[in-house]
Protein backbone atom coordinates (compact mmCIF):
# COMPACT_ATOMS: atom_id res chain seq x y z
CA UNK A 1 0.00 0.00 0.00
CA UNK A 2 1.36 3.37 -0.91
CA UNK A 3 -0.13 6.18 1.11
CA UNK A 4 0.17 9.24 -1.05
CA UNK A 5 -1.30 11.83 1.26
CA UNK A 6 -3.42 12.43 4.29
CA UNK A 7 -5.73 15.13 3.07
CA UNK A 8 -3.20 17.85 3.87
CA UNK A 9 0.05 18.91 2.25
CA UNK A 10 1.81 15.70 3.33
CA UNK A 11 2.47 13.72 0.18
CA UNK A 12 4.93 10.89 -0.45
CA UNK A 13 7.83 12.47 -2.33
CA UNK A 14 8.50 9.20 -4.16
CA UNK A 15 5.17 9.40 -6.01
CA UNK A 16 5.46 10.34 -9.68
CA UNK A 17 5.14 14.09 -10.20
CA UNK A 18 2.65 13.43 -13.04
CA UNK A 19 0.10 12.49 -10.40
CA UNK A 20 -1.07 15.72 -8.78
CA UNK A 21 -2.65 14.34 -5.61
CA UNK A 22 -4.00 17.71 -4.53
CA UNK A 23 -6.00 17.88 -7.77
CA UNK A 24 -7.80 14.54 -7.32
CA UNK A 25 -11.57 15.01 -7.41
CA UNK A 26 -13.24 12.44 -5.17
CA UNK A 27 -16.66 10.87 -5.43
CA UNK A 28 -18.17 9.30 -2.35
CA UNK A 29 -18.04 5.53 -2.83
CA UNK A 30 -21.59 5.45 -1.44
CA UNK A 31 -22.72 6.99 -4.75
CA UNK A 32 -21.04 4.42 -6.99
CA UNK A 33 -21.02 1.25 -4.88
CA UNK A 34 -23.13 1.65 -1.72
CA UNK A 35 -22.65 -1.96 -0.60
CA UNK A 36 -18.86 -1.77 -0.78
CA UNK A 37 -18.88 1.63 0.89
CA UNK A 38 -20.89 0.35 3.86
CA UNK A 39 -18.66 -2.73 4.25
CA UNK A 40 -15.49 -0.66 4.10
CA UNK A 41 -16.76 1.98 6.50
CA UNK A 42 -17.84 -0.64 9.04
CA UNK A 43 -14.54 -2.48 8.69
CA UNK A 44 -12.58 0.75 9.06
CA UNK A 45 -14.51 1.99 12.08
CA UNK A 46 -14.37 -1.35 13.89
CA UNK A 47 -10.62 -1.70 13.37
CA UNK A 48 -9.87 1.94 14.17
CA UNK A 49 -11.94 1.86 17.35
CA UNK A 50 -10.50 -1.44 18.53
CA UNK A 51 -6.85 -0.55 17.88
CA UNK A 52 -7.37 3.01 19.07
CA UNK A 53 -8.95 1.98 22.38
CA UNK A 54 -12.16 3.88 21.67
CA UNK A 55 -15.44 3.22 23.46
CA UNK A 56 -17.82 1.06 21.40
CA UNK A 57 -20.71 3.30 22.49
CA UNK A 58 -19.47 5.83 19.91
CA UNK A 59 -19.57 3.39 16.99
CA UNK A 60 -22.72 4.90 15.45
CA UNK A 61 -21.16 8.36 15.60
CA UNK A 62 -17.96 7.05 14.07
CA UNK A 63 -19.86 5.33 11.27
CA UNK A 64 -21.59 8.60 10.46
CA UNK A 65 -18.31 10.53 10.46
CA UNK A 66 -16.34 8.12 8.27
CA UNK A 67 -16.30 8.40 4.50
CA UNK A 68 -14.70 6.35 1.74
CA UNK A 69 -14.24 7.99 -1.64
CA UNK A 70 -12.68 7.17 -4.98
CA UNK A 71 -10.93 9.42 -7.41
CA UNK A 72 -8.50 9.49 -10.29
CA UNK A 73 -5.25 11.41 -10.27
CA UNK A 74 -4.15 13.67 -13.11
CA UNK A 75 -1.80 10.87 -14.17
CA UNK A 76 -4.69 8.38 -14.32
CA UNK A 77 -4.06 6.45 -11.09
CA UNK A 78 -7.16 5.26 -9.25
CA UNK A 79 -7.11 6.53 -5.65
CA UNK A 80 -9.06 5.51 -2.55
CA UNK A 81 -9.46 8.02 0.27
CA UNK A 82 -10.66 7.24 3.78
CA UNK A 83 -11.91 10.14 5.89
CA UNK A 84 -11.54 9.21 9.56
CA UNK A 85 -13.64 10.43 12.48
CA UNK A 86 -12.26 12.72 15.18
CA UNK A 87 -10.40 14.81 12.62
CA UNK A 88 -7.71 12.14 12.28
CA UNK A 89 -7.19 12.84 8.60
CA UNK A 90 -8.08 11.60 5.16
CA UNK A 91 -5.28 9.42 3.81
CA UNK A 92 -5.23 8.64 0.09
CA UNK A 93 -3.79 5.48 -1.41
CA UNK A 94 -3.31 4.23 -4.94
CA UNK A 95 -5.89 1.55 -5.56
CA UNK A 96 -6.42 -1.11 -8.21
CA UNK A 97 -10.21 -0.89 -7.87
CA UNK A 98 -10.72 -4.32 -6.27
CA UNK A 99 -12.58 -5.03 -3.03
CA UNK A 100 -9.60 -6.98 -1.68
CA UNK A 101 -7.24 -4.06 -2.22
CA UNK A 102 -9.77 -1.65 -0.70
CA UNK A 103 -10.05 -3.83 2.41
CA UNK A 104 -6.25 -3.87 2.76
CA UNK A 105 -6.10 -0.09 2.38
CA UNK A 106 -8.83 0.36 5.00
CA UNK A 107 -7.16 -2.08 7.41
CA UNK A 108 -3.74 -0.50 7.01
CA UNK A 109 -4.90 3.11 7.24
CA UNK A 110 -7.09 2.31 10.28
CA UNK A 111 -4.04 0.80 12.01
CA UNK A 112 -1.92 3.87 11.18
CA UNK A 113 -4.61 6.28 12.38
CA UNK A 114 -5.05 4.25 15.59
CA UNK A 115 -1.27 4.42 16.18
CA UNK A 116 -1.44 8.18 15.76
CA UNK A 117 -4.39 8.38 18.16
CA UNK A 118 -2.50 6.30 20.72
CA UNK A 119 0.57 8.52 20.36
CA UNK A 120 -1.59 11.59 21.02
CA UNK A 121 -3.05 9.86 24.06
CA UNK A 122 0.48 9.21 25.35
CA UNK A 123 0.99 12.98 25.13
CA UNK A 124 -2.11 13.51 27.27
CA UNK A 125 -4.56 14.27 24.46
CA UNK A 126 -7.86 12.41 24.94
CA UNK A 127 -10.75 12.28 22.50
CA UNK A 128 -13.90 12.01 24.56
CA UNK A 129 -14.53 8.71 22.77
CA UNK A 130 -11.88 6.88 24.75
CA UNK A 131 -12.79 3.70 26.57
CA UNK A 132 -13.25 4.32 30.28
CA UNK A 133 -10.12 3.95 32.39
CA UNK A 134 -10.05 2.76 35.99
CA UNK A 135 -10.78 5.70 38.25
CA UNK A 136 -12.43 7.81 35.55
CA UNK A 137 -15.58 9.59 36.65
CA UNK A 138 -18.81 8.50 34.95
CA UNK A 139 -19.25 10.12 31.55
CA UNK A 140 -22.97 9.70 31.00
CA UNK A 141 -26.10 10.07 33.06
CA UNK A 142 -26.71 6.30 32.91
CA UNK A 143 -23.16 5.59 34.10
CA UNK A 144 -23.58 8.15 36.88
CA UNK A 145 -26.81 6.52 38.07
CA UNK A 146 -25.17 3.05 37.99
CA UNK A 147 -22.15 4.42 39.82
CA UNK A 148 -24.30 6.02 42.55
CA UNK A 149 -26.26 2.76 42.97
CA UNK A 150 -23.01 0.86 43.45
CA UNK A 151 -21.99 3.02 46.43
Q: Notable features of this structure?
A:
single chain; 151 residues; alpha+beta; 15% strand; elongated
Q: Specify Rg, calculated over alpha carbons.
A: 18 Å
| Total E-strand runs | 5
Annotation field: number of helices: 5
Mean model confidence by pLDDT = 83
Q: SSE order, as H and E?
A: EEHHHEEEHH
What overall form do the CA principal axes indicate?
A: elongated
Contiguous uncertain segments of 5+ residues: 6-15
Which secondary-structure class do the elements indicate? Answer: alpha+beta
Helix percent band:
40-55%
- With strands numbered from the N-terminus, the spatial order across the biggest sheet is 1-5-4-3-2
> What share of the residues does DSSP label as strand, in percent?
5-15%
Largest sheet: 5 strands, antiparallel
Number of domains: 1
Distance between the termini: 51 Å
3D architecture notes:
This protein has one domain. The chain contains five helices and five strands; from the N terminus they run ββαααβββαα. Residues 6-15 have low confidence and may be disordered. With 151 residues, it is α+β, with helices and mostly antiparallel strands. A hairpin with a 5-residue loop joins strand 3 and strand 4. It has a five-stranded antiparallel sheet with strand order 1-5-4-3-2.
